[in-house]
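hey
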């Protein structure tokens, strides 16, 4: 663990993507854990009408639009499963299948 991130974002659903976009805009050093498929529930949805800005769209269509936004902002997803999070007082240790990470805050 040579590096401590400002933020560790866990989960690549809509909340995680929103957190990553905000962290990027605010120039925070962050790591974003999730799946490149983003939300498996989202891509399985036939029709979605309850996401602001998207209406009468399939989950795949919404996922594709969100992916374009993530690509435009150059946000990378770390495909690794988080197993546990340990509070160390003023920072956190995130234990994953691939190793240990440190972050000042966790979302």
């Amino acid at each position: 663990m040579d590096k401590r991130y400002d933020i560790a974002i866990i989960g690549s659903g809509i909340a995680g993507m929103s957190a990553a976009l905000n962290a990027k805009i605010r120039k925070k050093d962050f790591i974003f854990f999730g799946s490149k498929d983003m939300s498996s529930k989202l891509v399985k949805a036939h029709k979605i009408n309850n996401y602001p800005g998207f209406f009468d769209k399939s989950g795949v269509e919404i996922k594709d639009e969100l992916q374009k936004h993530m690509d435009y902002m150059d946000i990378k997803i770390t495909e690794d499963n988080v197993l546990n999070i340990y509070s160390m007082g003023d920072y956190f240790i995130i234990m994953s299948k691939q190793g240990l990470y440190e972050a000042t805050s966790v979302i």
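The two ends are 19 Å apart (CA to CA). Helices lie at 14-25, 40-44, 59-72.
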